[in-house]
Design brief:
Length: 390
C-alpha cells in the first residue's frame, strides 16, 4: 500500500508528528505497517496463549482457542471454514521447537535474530532463560512488555553485517529514549530511582547473554537505560485471537443462524466467568517506526487495529481527515480514555512523559484535579505491575 502520510515537525515543543498527504474518509486505512521487532508477553505465553514466535498470529484453531478459554473441552464451533488458522502450515524450529505459523515466518526469524537466540528453553543455566525468569519475577500481568524483545534487538544487531548494524542503530535512534523529559521535569514511572535495582539486574543479565565485542557498549548503565526507555515509552501493544477472528467472520455472513449467535454469546459468558474477557488475546508488543511519530490525543482521529490477526498494524480513520491534518492516535486504552482528565493525564505523564493539551483536555480544563475512587484502584494496580525490592 502506498504511504500517504508524512513525518514532520508538529510544533515547537512536541517534536515530530505524522500528517496526512491526502483526504481520508471515516473507515479508510491511513497506514499499514509491519514492526521492527515484536515479542509476545512472557506470562501470556506461559499461560498457554499459543502464537507464532515471529508474527504473533494464533497457533490454535478458533475451536481450540474457545475450548481452552471457556474451559469446555467438548465445545464444537460450527462453520470451520471461517476459522482463520490452518495448522497444516505450522512449523517448529528444528533447534529449539519454538513454533511458527509458516515456513516464511520461521525463515525470517532465523535470518533476522533466531540463529543467535535459538537455545534449549528447559536449560535452567542458560543466560536467556535466567533473564526471562528474572523478568517474570519483577513484571506481573497486566503486562506492558517482555524483556526478551530487548534480547531480540540485541540478537538482530549481533547477526547483522556492518551496514545493517548501522541502519538498525539509526532506526533505534529515531525512537524517544529519554528516561526523563527535562523540559517538563517529568520522570518515567519505571525508569526512576524506584526500580533502579531491578533494572540493573536486567542490564547485568543481558550483558551476560550478549558478550560479543561489538555489542558490549550497549550494556553500559546509560546506554542500557536509553534502550530500555525506547521499549517502555514506544512499544505498541498487540492482541490476536483466532476465536475473535472466527466470530468476526461469522458476523459477516449474510444470514448467520440463531444457534450460532446464541453459541457465541454462551462462549463469551463462559470465558468471562473463567478468564475474563480482558485476557482473551495472545498479547505482545512491538516497535513501529512510522507509527511511533503519531502524537497522542484523547480525541484521536484514527484507531490502531490488527486486522490481519498478526503483528501488522493498521491505522483506520475514525473521522474524515484532510490533507495536512495531523494524524493522532490514543496512547490510552479505551477504558482509560473514558476517565477524568486528571486520570488520563496521570497515565500520560508517568508513562509517556508529557502533559496532554489536546482539545478534549482543554475543554475539560475546569474539571477538579481529583481521581475518582475507581481511578485510585487502577493506580494501585499499575504500581504492582513492577514490584519493588528484589
Ligand atoms: Zn507467523
Ligand atoms: Zn530455535
Ligand atoms: Zn488529552
Amino acid at each position: 500500500m502506498e504511504d500517504f502520510t508524512e513525518e514532520r515537525q508538529s510544533g515547537p515543543r512536541k517534536g515530530n508528528g505524522l500528517f496526512a498527504r491526502k483526504k481520508f474518509e471515516k473507515g479508510d486505512v491511513v497506514l499499514h505497517e509491519k514492526p521492527l521487532v515484536c515479542c509476545q508477553f512472557a506470562y501470556n505465553e506461559d499461560c498457554g496463549y499459543r502464537a507464532c514466535e515471529y508474527c504473533l498470529s494464533p497457533l490454535e484453531t478458533a475451536q481450540e482457542n474457545a475450548q481452552r478459554l471457556s474451559g469446555i473441552p467438548a465445545l464444537a464451533l460450527p462453520h470451520p471454514e471461517l476459522d482463520p488458522v490452518n495448522p497444516k502450515n505450522f512449523q517448529s524450529c528444528p533447534g529449539c521447537a519454538v513454533m511458527y505459523c509458516s515456513v516464511s515466518c520461521m525463515d525470517e526469524a532465523a535470518r533476522r535474530y533466531h540463529r543467535t537466540l535459538c537455545h534449549n528453553p528447559h536449560d535452567p543455566a542458560h543466560p536467556l532463560n535466567i533473564l526471562r525468569n528474572a523478568w517474570k519475577e519483577i513484571h506481573f500481568p497486566p503486562e506492558s512488555f517482555n524483556i526478551m524483545i530487548m534480547a531480540k534487538v540485541a540478537a538482530m544487531y549481533q547477526q547483522a553485517d556492518a551496514k545493517d548494524r548501522e541502519e538498525l542503530l539509526r532506526t533505534l535512534n529515531r525512537f524517544e529514549s529519554d528516561a526523563v523529559n527535562a523540559d517538563e521535569g517529568i520522570a518515567h514511572k519505571v525508569l526512576g530511582e524506584q526500580f533502579k535495582v531491578q533494572l540493573d539486574a536486567m542490564r547485568v543479565l543481558l550483558a551476560s547473554a550478549f558478550k560479543d565485542e561489538a555489542i558490549k557498549s550497549w550494556w553500559s548503565a546509560s546506554n542500557f537505560l536509553s534502550l530500555f526507555a525506547i521499549f517502555a515509552r514506544n512499544a505498541q501493544g498487540i492482541g490476536t485471537s483466532s476465536f475473535g477472528m472466527w466470530q468476526k467472520n461469522v458476523n459477516h455472513l449474510p444470514n448467520a443462524d440463531k444457534e450460532t449467535t446464541e453459541l457465541i454469546t454462551a462462549v463469551y459468558v463462559a470465558i468471562e466467568d473463567r478468564t475474563g474477557e480482558e485476557f482473551m488475546d495472545n498479547e505482545g508488543s512491538a516497535l513501529f517506526v512510522r507509527q511511533r511519530a503519531c502524537n497522542h490525543s484523547c480525541q484521536p482521529n484514527t484507531q490502531v487495529n490488527f486486522l490481519s490477526n498478526d503483528f501488522t498494524l493498521t491505522l483506520t480513520a475514525t473521522q474524515p481527515i484532510n490533507p495536512g491534518d495531523e494524524i493522532v492516535i490514543s496512547y490510552l486504552s479505551e477504558c482509560q480514555l473514558e476517565r477524568s482528565r486528571h486520570s488520563r493525564q496521570k497515565v500520560l505523564r508517568e508513562h509517556y512523559l508529557f502533559h496532554c493539551t489536546c482539545p478534549k483536555c482543554q475543554a475539560e480544563s475546569s474539571q477538579a484535579d481529583v481521581t475518582s475512587g475507581e481511578d485510585e484502584w487502577e493506580d494501585e494496580d499499575d504500581e504492582e505491575a513492577m514490584e519493588e525490592g528484589g
